[in-house]
Design a protein that fits this description.
three-stranded parallel beta sheet
Length: 116
C-alpha cells in the first residue's frame, strides 16, 4: 500500500496517507477481477483493515480460516500469512515506482483481460 513511514514504527500503529495512486490502482484491480491481499507482520490485522477502509478501500482482517488463496475481489484481505499468489509487490519481490506502472505490470503478468 505504500504507507507513510515518516514517524517510524510507532508500535505498529497505522498512520499517514496512502502513496499517490495506490487507492485508484487497488480499486481498479479489484474491479477488473483481481483479488488483493495486504500482507503485514503487524499483530493487529484489524488495524490494517480499518486503515484501508478509512482511506476508501474495502478491507477485512484475516479470520484465520484455513486457505491457500484469497479469491474475493470486493475487498482486500489483511493478513500476516503468505498466501499463494502469482504476483507480489514487496521490498523483496516486484519493486514499483508508481501504482499505474505496477497495476499495468500485474495485468501483464497475470494476463487477465481488462474488464473495462
Amino acid at each position: 500500500m505504500s504507507v507513510s513511514r515518516d514517524r517510524g514504527w510507532q508500535d505498529g500503529a497505522m498512520y499517514g496517507d496512502m502513496a499517490p495512486g495506490a487507492r485508484k490502482a487497488l480499486l481498479a484491480l479489484m474491479a477488473d477481477g483481481y483479488s488483493v491481499v495486504a500482507r503485514s507482520q503487524r499483530v493487529d490485522q484489524q488495524a490494517v483493515a480499518d486503515w484501508l477502509e478509512a482511506h476508501g478501500v474495502p478491507a477485512v482482517a484475516d479470520d484465520g480460516e484455513p486457505r491457500a488463496y484469497w479469491t474475493d475481489t470486493t475487498r482486500v484481505l489483511c493478513t500476516a500469512r503468505a498466501l499463494t499468489s502469482p504476483f507480489e509487490v514487496t521490498p523483496y519481490g516486484y519493486s514499483h515506482q508508481d501504482w499505474d506502472a505496477t497495476a499495468a505490470r500485474i495485468r501483464e503478468t497475470i494476463n487477465r483481460p481488462n474488464s473495462r
